[in-house]
Write a structure and sequence with these properties.
Layout lengths: L16 H5 L4 H4 L6 E2 L11 H12 L14 H13 L8 E4 L2 H12 L5 E6 L3 H9 L3 E6 L1 E3 L2 E3 L2 H11 L3 E5 L11 H14 L2 E5 L20 H6 E5 L2 H4 L7 E5 L2 H8 L11 H13 L1 H25 L13 E5 L9 H9 L1 E2 L1 E2 L10 E5 L4 H16 L4
Parallel strand pairs: 1-12, 3-4, 3-7, 7-8, 8-9
Antiparallel strand pairs: 2-10, 5-6, 9-10, 11-14, 13-14
Helix pairs in contact: 3-12, 4-12, 7-8, 13-15, 14-15
């Protein structure tokens, strides 16, 4: 994709601060009024019109009774269709199950497939709730550090193989596209992971929630689509919530590759892990079936914003390490070359009044890193970057 035009995009750049601050979601509601938030992975953009229209129509019909889904919700077929159309993956609708949240999907799979004390390999840095889940569930996290190279963040496949073998891992939690580094793994890289999984008989739990937020020429490849062996050992987790800014609808899907695990899941009491809201299904279907035009505009804005973040940081903070994200709306910044004397999250908040995320919640060796959410308007992003560059610029040298 070429550099985005230098024009504002209606619906994405005309966001007033008063409107943003009046929102009840945690991103803008929790910080003090003079703070600009760029922390939690939630976009600032309004809900896509097709989703709002579909929800309004359902409410106007007063149609809020029990849904008649004897064979599962319509999401199962819609998911399989979208995977085939978007990624060429022949996912089976019969293997799809609905849940209320991606983290719940992960927790349920770990509950069914592993036991307390079992080792689980995980890329680091990583999404903090995933790492917290492993601790809370008494699963032994085996970090496999991503390597920061001149060409961007890379997985160390030899280290993955060694860690899995040495620790006796039962599963690998794979995040692709990767949060927080923004890497999109290539087919060759995924093949290396598949070889490790086959060699050590690993269950692969693949978080692909950012799949539709990859920037050309990078393209997401579902891990389960690699081969018959990969399909049989992979559980795929995803949702429309990231690509369409719908976190509050609480709707996600899990595609179960292993027969035994799917049978075990279906043998549980049907409501033990909660049931998905019909309105969440309505919103997801509307996004997948009618939201593509909105998403194309979104990717234009996000592509422009990621390039702007990269350019400002390169020009104003040349010592700071940062790679242009290949996917997501998150930038992962290494402030350690600047020699900060205190955690950068705290300094940027105190001196710049910008709330970012980062540090130890993202795993071992994440001290000194910041995660910046650039899914906001041009004007808000410019102010965020100006404040961050000003505060961190005083530390250079």
């Amino acid at each position: 994709m070429n550099a985005a035009p230098a024009r504002d995009v209606p619906g994405f750049d005309d966001l007033g601060l008063d409107w943003l601050r009046a929102r009840g979601s945690v991103k803008w509601h929790r910080p003090e009024r003079d703070v600009l938030p760029a922390w939690v992975a939630d976009m600032d953009f309004p809900t896509p019109t097709p989703v709002v229209d579909a929800l309004r129509e359902a409410v106007d019909r007063r149609d809020l009774g029990y849904p008649d889904w004897p064979d599962g919700s319509p999401l199962r077929t819609a998911f399989a269709k979208r995977m085939a159309e978007r990624f060429g993956w022949a996912a089976s609708a019969h293997r799809v199950r609905e849940q209320t949240d991606l983290i719940q999907c992960l927790q349920l799979v770990l509950h069914l497939a592993t036991s307390g004390g079992d080792a689980v390999a995980v890329q680091t840095p990583n999404y903090p709730p995933f790492l917290a889940t492993l601790r809370t569930m008494n699963r032994r996290a085996v970090p496999v550090p991503m390597r920061d190279t001149d060409d961007g963040w890379r997985m160390d496949f030899a280290a993955l193989d060694t860690a899995v073998k040495r620790s006796g891992c039962k599963a690998l939690v794979l995040v692709n596209p990767h949060n927080p580094t923004g890497r999109v793994l290539t087919r060759e890289e995924l093949g290396e992971i598949a070889a490790v999984a086959r060699r050590h008989d690993l269950l692969v739990v693949s978080d692909e929630i950012h799949a539709e937020l990859a920037y050309a020429p990078h393209r997401h490849i579902p891990f389960a689509s690699l081969s018959e062996d990969a399909a049989r050992r992979t559980v795929t987790l995803t949702s429309a919530t990231k690509a369409f800014n719908l976190a509050a609808i609480r709707c996600a899907v899990t595609h179960y590759g292993p027969d035994r695990l799917l049978a075990l899941r279906d043998a549980q009491p049907p409501d033990l892990f909660g049931t998905v809201s019909p309105l969440g299904v309505v919103a997801t279907l509307a996004a997948w079936e009618h939201g593509d035009a909105w998403q194309r505009d979104l990717l234009t804005v996000l592509d422009r914003n990621r390039r702007r973040v990269h350019a400002v940081l390169r020009d104003r903070l040349p010592l700071l390490r940062h790679h242009l994200p290949e996917a997501t709306y998150l930038a992962w910044l290494d402030t350690r070359p600047l020699g900060p004397a205190e955690p950068p999250v705290e300094k940027v908040l105190r001196d710049g009044r910008v709330l970012l995320d980062g540090g130890t919640p993202f795993g071992p060796d994440a001290d000194g890193f910041l995660r910046l959410n650039f899914a906001t308007s041009r004007q808000v992003l410019e102010e965020i970057l100006n404040r961050v560059a000003r505060v961190l610029g005083g530390q250079e040298g």
